[in-house]
Write a structure and sequence with these properties.
574 residues; mainly alpha; Serine Threonine Protein Phosphatase 5, Tetratricopeptide repeat; DNA-binding
DNA sequence: CTAGGGTTAG
């Protein structure tokens, strides 16, 4: 009774008082189980050794309880030893006991042993297959997992979920979704809270709102108004990261209960969309309902930095401990350095780094370098780059950033040299890519891309667009277009032309053109870029949004830019 | 006996 009530210590004491002769297998097992379920796995394992010493008979449930404990604790030594001696004793293993043994081996990474038990089993249940599948996927990869999965005589929803989560988790989003539709439409399985969450998280990552909506419909069908907090949060995050911040807010408002994580997701979303004011306004409301944590303050500071709310940001940062009871972490320092740096207060930012009680990392310096680049402080930038290269020698972004700074200052020779250094070392810049979801398909573009089946139409549209832009007063900004072959002298007309062409065929412009020709008039365009949007594209797309009367939402590496009627939601502060 | 979830700095 005490054991099942969770009074472990009392149960253990009482158990000690009873003479050993009066205790049977069930008593011992009950107590072991009790310890195992209260996180006291070592005590459970010790109890098992004691039990063996006393010569008490070991049954099916005892074996299962023991191996479950070893699996959870990752205690291979005890598990392997116990299994070995049990086999020597000639103990009979039921299917369930074998499953528990295999699970232990699998969780500890001993797939050879797990497979051996599996091969030797005369009878295998679906669970046996699922246990092996889980181990294979975790230790041998999704590909090997697929082989086991296809060999399974019948598949349960656990097996399907393992495969779907593994695909999505390894970046094979498309394959994951294919499996999902097979599971739901082909095999008639339902989805549960766990599957909803992992799928929505994948949709958020890839910005796939079509799939996200499909899941949302199923969530409503399955749970109705009784929305689960975690599923609700996953929905909020998915809509926010797909550029639908208003929908995210609606889902958030309808959530019956909200915890810190839900608030964090909402505040983060608003921050990414440049709604710093909304974040600052919502924060006090949040405090009435939930206690803010590290991530909340990061979201708030981040929002301040992206909106230029410098004083507000300082206020939150300096009150982290006194008001919010939080110890400042390196992440908070990084946000603060960013707030000061973006606002041009570079000396203060550098002072803050010098005064930090934690050693600064590459994020902190990276942020400072970016700010130096924006504010043209190349001497300071050079110094920071040296630090950064030591911390992260293979990173190309920092070199490019500094190179762009030189280019901006007219020091094209230095800019070119820096790129040469990268080239000589064989380090290549991560290519910029832009994606646009149209008609349930993802269309991807790189700079100067001619691979798309509708390339011709896209480039015709591009020419038309550039012409319209020019007559609206657009002047291409080729400052950052550095060619490795140039000698740093005057730019001649031919090269100017070449540079302009390079800027025109940036991936985000191609994606916009494709969006313009493949969607109905006035429809909003949603584009995702893996790097930060470039200066020239930013000013060009502002004008595009006006002359074509389109809302264009671009998610770049850092945040969202929502272009509408010639303006951007970032207010050009980025 | 099997899977197991939501927020995370530049």
């Amino acid at each position: 009774m005490y054991a099942s009530c969770g009074a472990t210590t009392y149960a253990h004491k009482l158990f000690g008082i009873i003479p050993h002769s009066h205790k049977d297998t069930v008593d011992w097992t009950t107590l072991m189980n009790c310890f195992a379920h209260h996180g006291m796995l070592n005590t459970a394992i010790n109890l098992f050794s004691e039990m063996r010493k006393e010569g008490v008979r070991v049954d099916d449930v005892t074996i299962i309880v023991l191996f479950e404990a070893c699996a959870r604790l990752g205690n291979v030594a005890v598990g392997v030893q116990a299994h070995g001696s049990m086999v020597k004793m000639g103990l009979g293993f039921t299917v369930k006991a074998c499953n528990a043994v295999m699970d232990m081996y699998g969780k500890c990474g001993l797939m050879g042993e797990a497979r051996q038990v599996f091969e030797e089993m005369k009878e295998k249940s679906v669970v046996s297959w699922t246990v092996i599948l889980d181990g294979v996927v975790k230790w041998e990869g999704v590909g090997s997992g697929m082989v086991v999965f296809s060999e399974m005589p019948d598949k349960n929803e656990v097996a399907w979920t393992i495969m779907i989560a593994a695909h999505i988790g390894s970046g094979f989003t498309k394959e994951g979704f294919t499996l999902l539709s097979e599971m739901v439409l082909g095999s008639g399985f339902g989805l549960n809270k766990v599957t909803f969450c992992s799928i929505l998280s994948a949709c958020a990552q890839s910005g796939d709102v079509v799939m996200g909506r499909w899941v949302h419909v199923r969530v409503l069908k399955a749970m109705g108004r009784e929305m689960d907090v975690k599923v609700g949060t996953a929905l909020v995050d998915m809509y926010a990261k797909s550029g639908r911040i208003d929908t995210a807010f609606k889902v958030f408002e309808y959530m019956p209960q909200k915890n810190v994580v839900a608030w964090n997701a909402m505040l983060n979303g608003l921050g990414m969309h440049g709604r710093g004011k909304a974040v600052v306004d919502m924060f006090p409301k949040m405090m009435e309902e939930a206690k803010p944590d590290d991530l909340t303050l990061m979201a708030v500071l981040n929002a301040c930095s992206h909106t230029g709310l410098v004083d507000q940001g300082c206020h939150y940062f300096y009150n982290l401990e006194s008001v919010y009871g939080l110890t400042p972490k390196i992440e908070h320092y990084a946000c603060m350095v960013d707030i000061l740096g973006r606002a041009g207060r570079l000396e203060e930012a550098e002072m803050l780094i010098k005064k930090m009680p934690i050693p600064p990392n590459e994020v902190v310096f990276g942020s400072l370098l970016a700010s130096c680049s924006v504010h043209g402080k190349f001497e300071q930038g050079e110094g920071i780059l040296k630090e950064l290269i030591q911390m992260d020698p293979l990173n190309t972004e920092y070199h490019i950033l500094l190179s762009n700074m030189y280019a901006l200052a007219g020091k094209r020779y230095k800019a070119t040299c820096l790129r040469q250094v990268l080239k000589l070392r064989g380090i290549r810049k991560v290519p910029g890519m832009s994606c646009i979801h149209v008609g349930g398909q993802v269309h991807q573009f790189s700079s100067g891309d001619k691979m798309h089946p509708q390339t011709q139409e896209i480039y015709i549209k591009l020419d038309e667009m550039i012409q319209k832009l020019r007559s609206a007063g657009y002047v291409p900004n080729t400052t950052f277009q550095v060619f490795s072959g140039c000698d740093g002298g005057e730019v001649n007309a031919d090269e100017m032309e070449e540079r302009e062409q390079a800027v025109f065929s940036h991936s985000e412009k191609l994606a916009v053109c494709f969006g313009l020709i493949s969607t109905r008039a006035n429809a909003s365009l949603y584009i995702f870029k893996n790097l930060r949007i470039c200066q020239d594209c930013h000013s060009a797309i502002k004008i595009v949004s006006k002359i074509y009367n389109r809302e264009i939402v671009i998610r770049d590496r850092n945040r969202f830019h929502c272009f509408r009627q010639g303006l951007c939601s970032c207010s050009d502060y980025w």
